[in-house]
Amino acid sequence: MVVPVYNEQDCIVPLYDALIEVCDKLSVLYELVFVDDGSQDDTYSILKRLHAGDRRIKVIRFRKNYGQTAAMAAGFHHARGEVIVSMDGDLQNDPVDIPRLVAKLEEGFDVVCGWRRNRQDKLWTRRVPSIVANWLIGRITGVRIHDNGCSLKAYRGVVIKNVTLYGEMHRFIPAMATLAGARITEVVVNHHPRRFGKSKYGLGRIWRVALDIITVRLISGFSSRPGLWFGIPSFLCFILGVLELFPLVNYSAGDFEGWTVLSTIVFLFFLLSGHLFTMGTIGELSLKTGDYRPQKTLEPTVTSV
């Protein structure tokens, strides 16, 4: 179990009790990996106390708030299980659903996503933006599931550990997992109203989600061929520049201002074409010669208990 938490002091003990009750019934070896994402309340002290009384609990603490994606990535990195289940720490996800997700995983799937069909959140600030975002993600990435934002998911460890997470990519784990050839399905899960504290998300995240969708599309569709991603618009800009050359050549020499404007447009089209082509070339060179390992950047930011 991987559970990122941030300022959830009132939720920790009830969540721990519920998880222990459910996981004990599975009759398998398990561990609970709590990732404290730089909480400023008593979350960490409560987790330390639970760890002292139960060695099945592993606690990772960030020095400051890095966000849910970084917390989940750290949890996945330190988890040792063949099956890894992630969930939120705010008691809105229901641990009772965990056995059903694990059972679905045993049918041959690699990622099982929770679907909060009866979501207990505010309509206009949470549910409506989520519906739109899920539709866009499905159309752009081709991974059509109903609820990308639900943190309650089950994974095969060998799959999720090969998914590179950064920024705010936790919403796009299913799409990113397809790069590793993962088989993905979803299961309807319970969702409860928040009992303690307040939500860490609002409408302010919309623009970041939009940018992340573009990034995920680039990674999932063109990660192995960045030259194509930049080459297509580069070619279109070049064609537009060539087409603008014909009226420029035949333009009336007396209309200097019009000629200047048209020649500037032609120049900008060719400049943009060259710029995009260069970006594609740099991308190809980086892909062929680079040795970037994002997971290494997590090590200095966490302490383990």
Helix and strand topology:
Elements lengths: L1 E4 L6 H14 L6 E5 L6 H11 L3 E6 L5 H11 L4 E4 L11 H8 L5 E5 L7 H19 L11 E4 H4 L12 H5 L6 E5 L17 H17 L3 H24 L6 H34 L12 E3 L1
Parallel strand pairs: 1-2, 2-3, 5-7
Antiparallel strand pairs: 3-8, 4-6, 5-6
Helix pairs in contact: 5-8, 9-10
Kindly describe this structure.
Helix 5 runs parallel beside helix 8 and helix 9 packs antiparallel against helix 10 (256-289). Helix 2 (43-53) links the parallel strand 2 and strand 3 (57-62). This protein has a 4-stranded mixed beta sheet with strand order 1-2-3-8, with helices on both faces. A 4-stranded mixed beta sheet has the order 4-6-5-7. It has 10 helices and 8 strands. Helices cover 48% and strands 12% of the residues. The chain folds into 2 domains: 2-222, Spore Coat Polysaccharide Biosynthesis Protein SpsA, Chain A; 226-291. The longest helix has 34 residues, at 256-289. The protein is elongated and about 85 Å long. It has 305 residues and is α/β, with parallel strands linked by helices. The two termini are 16 Å apart.
- In the CATH scheme, what's the topology name of the largest domain? Spore Coat Polysaccharide Biosynthesis Protein SpsA, Chain A
CATH architecture of the largest domain: Alpha-Beta Complex
Query: Main beta sheet, described?
Result: 4 strands, mixed
Annotation field: number of helices: 10
Task: Output mean pLDDT.
Answer: 83
**Count of domains:** 2
Radius of gyration: 24 Å
Output the CATH class name of the largest domain: Alpha Beta
